[in-house]
Amino acid sequence: MNAERGFQNVVSVKNLDSLQYLWLTPIGAVFFHALYSILKCRLAPKIYSRLSTSSDSSEAPLSLTAEVSEKLVSSTYAIVCSVASIVILWQARNDMLRGQAPILVPFTYFIMWYFVYDLYAMYDSYCLRMSLRGSFLKKATTFCRTNIAIVAHHVVILLIGVPLDIMYVWRKDLGDFIIGCFMIHDMANPFLHTTHILKLLNQTNSKVFQMCAVMTVCSFAVFRLLTYPFMIAVYTYQYDLSTLQALSTMKVHCHAFFWSALALQVHWFYGIIRVYRKHLQKKD
User: Fold this and answer.
1) What is each CA distance from 161 to 59, 93, 100, 250, 266, in whole angstroms?
2) Of the candidates 29, 13, 28, which has an alpha carbon nearest to the alpha carbon of residue 167?
3) Residues 6 or more apart from 275 whose CB is under 8 A from it?
4) pTM of the full predicted structure?
5) How far is Cα 195 from Cα 189, in angstroms, rounded to an integer?
6) Pairing with 175, which of 89, 190, 230, 234 sits 20 to 30 Å away (CA)?
7) Can you tell me the mean pLDDT for 148-177?
C-alpha cells in the first residue's frame, strides 16, 4: 500500500513537472500558423503559373494556394514528428514498457497545437475551394459533415492522445516506446502530401508523382503496417515470451486499441492502393 502511494506521489510530481513545458505550446501555435500564412503569400504567383486551366473565379488560385500550403505544413509536421519519434524510440529502447524518453513531454507540448491549426487550415482551404458563403457556424457545420473522419481523428488526439502523452498518471509511467511507435506513422505522410500537391498541379503523369506514389506505398507499409508486428516482436524479445504468451498478457483494452488501429491502417492502405491504381489506369 505504501509502495503504491509512493508511486502515485512520484507520478504526481512528474505531472506537475511537465507543466514547465507549457510555454512551448504558444511557440508551436505561432510556428504552424505563421508558416501557413507565409506559404500562402509566397506560393500564390507560383500556383498561378502552374495552373493548366484558367478559372474565371478570382478565388480559384487562392483556394489552390491554401490547400498546397496546408499540405506543405502537414509535411513539415510529419518530418519533425518522424525525427522526434526516432529519438523517442532510441531513448526508450531498453524497455518498451518502462523505458523513459525525456523528449516526449516537451515535444508533445510543442506540437499539440498543430491539430487545432490543421483543423483551421483544412477549414480555410475547404471554404475557399467550395466557395462557401454564410456565417461561420454554417460553414463550420458543412466542413465537419464533409470531413467527419479527419475532424474526429484530430479531436480524439487532442482529447485523449495528448493527455496520455503528458499525463503520466493516466498510463502509470509506461509506454514511451509504444507512443514513439505510433508517432513514426507520420514517416509516410510527406510522400502522401507530395502526391496530393502534384495532383492539384495536374502533374499526375510526371515521374515525380509516380516516384512519390511508390514511396508512399512502401513507407506506409513499413512505418504503419509493419509497426504493429514490430511492437509484438520487441515485446516478446525483451520479456522472453512467445508470441502467444505476449498476446495473452496484453489487457483487453490494449487488444481493442491495437487491433482497431491496425485495422484502420489496413483500410487506409487499401484506399491508397486503389487511388494510385486508378491514376495508373488513366495514364494507360
Assistant:
1) 36, 21, 18, 20, 21
2) 13
3) none
4) 0.86
5) 10
6) 190
7) 83
